[in-house]
């Protein structure tokens, strides 16, 4: 029983857990806007994204500021949880500033244009501004912004055209002062499996990440990977189990005990999302 429990915990940790991505020291930042979209308003939410944010992020991606961006929706509904996320990845903090400035300018421009549509029209109803529309479509009281950094990242040299990936996230709460040991263990035992899956085309990208600005107390680290279809999740599971099975029982127990000693098992959580919009730079 003890061995089965340890192995099950290890699986929880693992599953809780372009040229720029090949740089060993490269640790990009990702900004996330999480929203709770009101039922029946999903289409309107995507329309706001496409008319307000997409022109800005696509332009900055063409300029090399934005590395990738997208919109995803959770496949697992959780009480109190958000339903959608808009995200973009950049190389550093200067990229965050450029996107933020460009988005503020875009919203100000569209807000001004909305005001002009009724100027001089007696009794005319003011057009909705981008923020007015967002307040109608989402529960703004539940909005949560995150800024995360990939400590380790691997990305396929080329993404299939038009792909809308599925993303799996595994959240772990590493014990205080154990972050360095956790990363070393993760890179020793988990990264080789993910690297092979990446090379074989089973996954499109993977990473080990942390919050750059801490806003969440439920986790400290998370592992993520993308697949082009849900069947890829089965292949990842098989690969992980195969990697552990080829080791002696003594080594399996040692690996499980190592991760158990570094994390709070009760805090482990998982999440799966499907992409609704997914943009990466066009191949050169």
Summarize the structure in words.
The chain is an alpha+beta fold. It has one domain: Alpha-Beta Plaits, CATH 3.30.70. The protein is built from eight helices and eight strands; from the N terminus they run αβαββααββααββααβ. The protein has helices spanning 2-15, 42-62, 93-116, 130-137, 179-189, 191-199, 231-245, 249-262; strands spanning 29-35, 66-74, 84-90, 144-155, 166-172, 205-211, 221-227, 269-279. The chain has an eight-stranded antiparallel β-barrel, surrounded by six helices. Helix 1 (2-15) packs across helix 8 (249-262) and helix 2 (42-62) packs across helix 3 (93-116). The longest helix has 24 residues, at 93-116. The chain is elongated and about 75 Å long. Mean pLDDT is 90; it is low at 1-21.
Highlighted features:
284 residues; alpha+beta; Alpha-Beta Plaits; eight-stranded antiparallel β-barrel; elongated
Oligomer: single chain
The helix/strand series, from N terminus to C terminus, equals HEHEEHHEEHHEEHHE
- Class of secondary structure makeup: alpha+beta
SS summary, helix count: 8
Low-confidence stretches: 1-21
Tell me what the CATH architecture is.
Answer: 2-Layer Sandwich
Spatial separation of the terminal alpha carbons: 54 Å
The largest pleated sheet is described as: 8 strands, antiparallel, barrel
Shape: elongated
**Total discrete domains:** 1
Approximately what portion of the residues adopt beta-strand conformation?
Answer: 15-25%
Strand order of the largest sheet: 1-3-2-8-5-7-6-4
What name does CATH use for the topology?
Alpha-Beta Plaits
